[in-house]
């Protein structure tokens, strides 16, 4: 009885608030009556569920589920952050946390890996962009929200988790066991391409250091023949870093604009000649794990005809989310606008189509080169046998370690997309 009385008071209060709100904001009496009728339907539904549902659900939990369902049905990126989710988000933003190292999204109603973050537990376990996560520790993900899924996957470092993957080309789902760890990411690093005067600039995510680190490398290697910017499996990040990165290569024009229902959310971000550092030939590598800020960057270069985009179609996340607090402990993540590229086209659900479509794989070898590789492998085998009896074997091993300042020919031969980007830069250099 007490619950029903409280519920009636709540309904009465809600309707009173609705009457006040509609009297202030409704365009007409018809609008006001429609709003009151809709709110009445909502409160009757909540009351019915509270009274008759098979399980006893506390009133606050019922309201939280109502809000969560509303946000989930708006779009895949909006959501309700309850007290725990809000705290978890602040931990992720402000400090280290134990996790897998993957960015996920909802695509075609399925929990989908946007990209594994380079050199993290998920990456080392072989998780790929486009993988569908069917279960987390045996619990189905159908109908789950992004926040719920992230909360389940995050945990104490060194603790195990098993996720069930559905992958295109595989006949049936399979389990992947991963050990959580502290996620630390090197957002930008540079290498020189072996035997070529080309700078390879790898950007793994758009954190606050991207523009400064990219600038540093461009200044360090000013006399290269061109730049390859690798945005594959880059899930995005800070908008200002994406804009600033493009601004290093483009000297005028719109980089990206955002447009929302509220004109106050509309904005244009433009390039400035004063911040331009490089006019070198440029190739940009993307794939299905390139999302959000990565799509803004690659799409802007494409529209400005400033670089050639190589690889596979990108993920297609071109919307703007903000965190709007409800109170001190809870908040809404709400989509308020969409991004538009310089040409006016949208990224959302479409992505960026490369100028040159190249699927991942090894570089095809001719018979002569294949023989050379086999011969090289034989030599390596014989050398390893000699090392077993050679007193200086340890010194030889030290010398054989990978040089982290270059991309070796072996790595290029295993990466057809990268090899294509190298060829693109060489052609652009000739045309200059």
From TrEMBL:
One GO cellular component assignment for this chain's record is: outer membrane-bounded periplasmic space
In this protein, which residues make up the domain named PDZ?
Answer: 88-154
According to the lineage, what is the superkingdom? Bacteria
The alphabetized UniProt keywords are: Hydrolase, Protease, Serine protease, Signal
GO biological process annotation, one example: signal transduction
**Family that this chain belongs to:** Belongs to the peptidase S41A family.
NCBIfam families membership: prc
Q: What is this protein called?
A: S41 family peptidase
